[in-house]
Amino acid sequence: MERDVLAREIIDTCLEMTRLGLNQGTAGNISVRYQGGMLITPTGTPYERLTESNIVFVDADGQFEEGKIPSSEWRFHQAVYQARPDANAVVHNHAVHCTAVSILNRPIPAIHYMIAVGGGNTIPCAPYATFGTKKLSEHVYEAMRDRKATLLQHHGLIACEENLQKALWLAHEVEVLARLYLTTLAIVDPVPVLPDEEIAIVLEKFKSYGLRIEE
Ligand SMILES: [Zn+2]
After folding, report:
1. CA of 97 to the centre of ligand 1 (A)
2. Looking at its record, which EC class is this enzyme (predicted)?
C-alpha cells in the first residue's frame, strides 16, 4: 500500500481510538509495518492536528527521517514486529481499565471466553521499565512472543494484529476484559475463571471460524 494511504489509516485509527474512549490525551501511539521498518505517529502532536506528512518512517535500524521525531515509544513497537512476524499493526494506549489492572501488576485471567482474542488464557502484564527505554522493549518482546496483547505495568496496553482495524478492535476488547475483571474483583478475589481446557477449545474455534469484526 502507498505510504500516504497507510499514513491516513494511522490517523483515522488514532481518531477512532479517541472516539472509543481508549485514549488519554496524547498518550497513545499507533504504527504499521512498512518497508522493513514502520510508519508511526510522531511525538507530542494532538491527533486532530495530524496530517499524513507528520507520520514518521523508522527503518529497521531505528533511524528516523530527518526533521521528524517519532513517538518516544517507537522501540517497543519495533520489539512487537520482531516478536510477531504475523503482526502488521500495533496500537498502544493508556486506557483506564487496562492501566488500572497494570497497576495491580496482574495479568487479566480467563474471566470470560473472549480472553482468547489475545492468543492464550491470560492477557499478561509486562514488568515495569521507564517509557521509551530498551529495557521496556525487551519486556514487551518477551510478553508478546506468545500473545497479541499485553498490559504494561504502571503504564497501559499494547495490542497487535494483521491490520490496523483488527489491532484497534483487539485493544478495545482487552479494555472491556479489564473492566469486567475490575468489576468482579471489587466483589471477590480471586475472581472465578474458566479452565484451561475450555480456553483451548475457544482458541481452536477462533482459529477455524476467524474473528468477525462488527462494523
Ligand atoms: Zn505509553
Report:
1. 14
2. lyase
